Each structure stands twice: as structure tokens, then as C-alpha cells.
Task: structure prediction
Amino acid sequence: MSTIYEEPAVLAEYLLFHYGTAAEILPPEIDWPAGMSAALDFAVRTPGHFSGRAVARGLDLGCAVGRSTYEMSRSCGHVIGIDFSRAFIDSANALREGRPIAYTRRDEGHAATGLIAKRPEDIDPAGTTFLQGDAMALPSDIGSFDRVHAANLICRLSDPVVLLNRLPALVNPDGELVLATPCTWLEGFTAPQNWPPGDTFDWLKIHLCGSFDFVKRTDEPFLIRETARKFQWTRSMLTVWRRR
Ligand SMILES: C[S@@+](CC[C@H](N)C(=O)[O-])C[C@H]1O[C@@H](n2cnc3c(N)ncnc32)[C@H](O)[C@@H]1O
Result:
């Protein structure tokens, strides 16, 4: 399993990605291309693909530092966020407990800017729990959920089919599943024999259509700032499914 998500520099990038303001990510004195601004707030936009109705239980797999878990809790009675990274879950829990996190935004070389990450003030943290865990080996007693969200996770798993096979038991009848993936299959995370044999969407349909109705497919861009001049701009393929 890769340890990249334990690295302090990557933790800082994700705190900025999930909790940074638009001005902290794209300082307004620069005329950024419109596509970069449109890629902000990914962790808010992906849970926005669930229906708006109020439900009881949600699960956010690969939740990182927790922003999408909080966003899901706006209409879920309780949401469990699970991530394999100890550093990410410790940060999500610190924010949950009302402890802001001071972190460094790298600008270039030795130049950096100190920033503070805080959870959204209008969220009740009692509606969330964060756990360190493996999405391919979830506790047998975790139960089932009205909503499951996994953003940019499946192409980071060593054996994603293990999770796909578990999903029918995790999602309640009529429950919703939102999967987003940039389809960036890399040997460092997933052995090539475990990559989809062709198109990722076709492969998802093969594994999910036995238990889920396909609802929709769209693209959601996201922007991860590495330095003042270097960003990851990526298009994630987002699919929504309803459990039969
Ligand atoms: C590309 S990041 C996406 C994080 C977040 N969902 C987002 O969209 O910003 C992948 C996340 O999956 C987590 N992860 C990787 N393997 C995992 C596993 N086996 N179980 C749970 N989380 C895992 C990583 O620690 C990381 O937080």
C-alpha cells in the first residue's frame, strides 16, 4: 500500500484542496483561466450529486481530510468517513473536535504561506465519525447505508473489485451510490492485472449492474495546488447508481 497520503506535504495539499478558500488557492490578483476556478470545491460538488432528501446513514470511503463527509452530513443523519491514511483521519478528527489546523501552503522553493484549516461552521460535527480503515476490508459489522460516496478512490486501491463486490451489501435498497474516478490507473497503486481491461465505465457497469440501476454519468473537474505555478487539473468521471 502506498504511503504517499501520510506525507506532510500531501496532507497540506489536501487541507488546502478541501478547506482552502478560492482566494487561498487562486489568489485574485492573477487572471487565472476560467477552467481553474470551475474546478474548485470538488469535495462539495461530488456529494451534491445525491438526491436532496433527508436520509439516515451515509458512508464516505476514501474521505481524506473529511470535507465531503461534512457535506454529506447536511442531509444524512450520520455519516462515517473512512480513509486508510492515519495522517488524514487524525486531521479530520482534529477539525471535527473544533481544533483548527495550521498548515503551510508551498508557494515555491523555500517560499511558503501559513494557512488555517477549519471545518465549515454551519455543520454539526455530531453527525460525523471518522475512522482509519481499508475500503477493501471494511468491518463486517459496519452495517448498510442510504448513501455511499467514494471520490477518486477506486483507482487508488490495490484490488478495486473487492470494494465493487462489497457495495451491494453496503447500500440499502433504493439507496444511492456516487463514484467518482479520474481513471488514473497507476502501477504504484494498482497492479495492471487489476485495472479495467478497457474503458472504466464499461467495467463499472459489468460489476454494478447486477444490483444497481445506473442513474447518470457526468464529469467533475478538480484542482490540487502543488505550488503557486503548478496545479493538478483533472477531470473525474462521476457516476450515480441506485440500489435495486
Ligand atoms: C486521490 S485521494 C481522494 C481523496 C478524497 N476522496 C478527495 O476526493 O479529495 C485517495 C484517498 O483514498 C485513500 N485510500 C487509498 N487507499 C485506501 C483504502 N484501501 N481504503 C481507504 N482509503 C484509501 C487515500 O488515503 C486518499 O485519502
